[in-house]
Amino acid sequence: MSSIDEFALIRLLNGGKQSATLVTAAGVITGIGDDAAVVEASPGSHLILTCDTMTEHIHFKQVTMRDEDIGYKAMASAVSDIAAMGGVPRFALVALSMPGGTAVERVQAIYEGLYECASRYGIAIVGGDTTAILGELTLTVTVIGETEQGKAKLRSTAQPGDAVFATGYLGRSAAGLDFLLGQNVPSGEWTVFPEQTEALVQAHCRPEPQIEAGQVLQRSGVCRALNDVSDGLASEMWEIAEASGVGIDLIEERIPIADELAAFARTQGKDPLDYILYGGEDYQLVGTVPAGNAIELQMKFKEAGLALHVIGYVHAEGQGVRMVQNNGYIVPLAKHGYNHFSGADGKGGV
Predict the structure, then answer these.
(1) Considering the entire predicted model, what is its pTM?
(2) pLDDT value of residue 9
(3) Domain 155-332 sits in which CATH superfamily?
(4) Does the annotation place 34 within a ligand binding site?
């Protein structure tokens, strides 16, 4: 890494990245530059705090993500947890650990991505830490969000008789990762990808946390359990089922499959449902709603220009997750999704 002291590096990475107007509007009293940030929380609200870490060669490689994407996705992953609680993200702290010899230009690009995502969702970056490391480059993002008192959405509130829903398309991020690993080309040498493939690459490198969808669910007053899809649909449904002490049946024919995912899966000789169930990092939302309110909720989403798909139901016939297949058979779904400690490579999420 080029010779530069810690405080000069902090100024280089953060100086002028966000307007004083954004920072003040977010309620920042004291931001970057002191021992700690001081922010104003609204009366009658609860704060939501989450932390997410990305490490090179575990969560990303230089053939699967550009440096700007690393920063963007690290922020988006943490922001998604706020969306999954029905909250609004407000502040972020960023900790960067980098090996000696890391180019300043690379770190600058990572921070450009961080600030791009933060500014898109009105989040003030108010501090963090930088340190040298003997291992791989590691980026940790802490996000503080806010929701009305007692209104945070939990995994533990699904009830028998609920309908199960998902926002948007699932499985595209995992397919994008598969494509990029197959190419094995450094991101700096990527060419223009065909339109459908580019959609998969974007889903993997630039996922969009569903803050707006989370707010629609919050305001609806009918959403019960809620979760974000970081480790695959099967894993997230198991989390809701176990936390709520219920069973969940997914209906195969109701799970939406994006055209670009179906096309790519055919080239790989795979079932697109494998990507949807066991891929992850889509950062869409899944949850439950009383069955009688499902159509009402779909209409609210349509009015907001968003998609919401009813993909199953909650029951009291034991605890776990099953799939109602198109042939009528009901089969149990494995609990696994992405596992950080299984030896898998190139992706991750919490």
Answers:
(1) 0.89
(2) 80
(3) PurM-like C-terminal domain (3.90.650.10)
(4) no
